[in-house]
Write a structure and sequence with these properties.
alpha/beta, TIM Barrel, eight-stranded parallel β-sheet, globular, binds pyridoxal-5'-phosphate
């Protein structure tokens, strides 16, 4: 049985997403909620998946690998999708690829090559998002905006990869307009990507987290990644 506190927290997240969608004139169903489950114990993650949150992501390979088998055991027969959303080094690709449906943090053509080769060896088609650093902050990973389209082009034509769209970690700032500008840039790059040959289906935009998902949804997010707002062990964050 899923913890009632967790269910209440998840309901709040779903309500926020739905309200943001409606005020942007969008269908709530048009926005997927990925639970960013870093530091969360497997039992809580399994409870969230059983409650209908079938999209989960980890941002460290070591933690993802450490939890994967137990989570799979806890969820036999329950469909869910595991994504990788963190900084990825080439030497971790081999451990990661067999465990995930999708890597959202593809920031270079070299990483595209490596992921394509390993996915091909394992006989899988791996979903990928190109991660873009829209804020230009040194601390943020992701490709420069000017490189996003060429990295996306490198994904196309790889039978072992499927380009799903673009991902970003937004500017961490109280300046809502500056945050929105970053998300608008990702959306515009997404349109450029979709204009390439063979990329018409790569329409997803993974952007927005607990603190700013309303802004991201107003700017066209198709997936938000929520961690702290869904974490029953924390006090709820201030919402905007
Ligand atoms: C942790 C994390 C999130 C979620 O952040 P919150 O602010 O806790 O909602 C989203 N994306 C990535 C890449 C993360 O590592």
């Amino acid at each position: 049985m899923t913890d009632p506190d967790l269910l209440a927290r998840l309901d709040t997240v779903r309500d926020r997403v739905a309200a943001a969608a409606r005020s942007a004139g969008r269908e709530p169903d048009a926005i997927d909620i990925l639970l960013a489950t870093k530091t969360q114990p497997v039992a809580l993650i399994a409870g969230a998946v059983r409650a209908g949150f079938g999209l989960v992501g980890e941002n460290r390979v070591q933690e993802l690998v450490a939890k994967a088998a137990d989570l799979d055991d806890a969820l036999v027969g329950v469909p869910f999708e595991r994504h990788f959303i963190g900084r990825l080094q080439s030497n971790k690709v081999r451990a990661l690829v067999p465990l995930v449906k999708c890597v959202q943090s593809v920031h270079s053509s070299e990483l595209v090559d490596r992921l394509a080769a390993v996915a091909a060896e394992t006989g899988r088609v791996l979903g990928v998002f190109v991660q873009v650093n829209v804020s230009g902050e040194e601390s943020k990973s992701g490709a420069a905006p000017g490189a996003a389209v060429s990295i996306a082009a490198a994904v196309v034509g790889r039978p072992s990869l499927r380009l799903r769209g673009l991902m970003t970690i937004g500017l961490n700032s109280p300046d809502r307009q500056a945050v929105a500008d970053g998300y608008r840039l990702l959306r515009s790059l997404g349109a450029d990507v979709c204009a390439l040959p063979g990329t018409a289906a790569a329409t997803e935009l993974s952007m927005g987290m607990s603190g700013d998902l309303e802004i991201a949804i107003a700017e066209g997010a198709t997936m938000v990644r929520v961690g702290s707002a869904a974490d029953v062990r924390r006090t709820p964050p201030a919402t905007g």
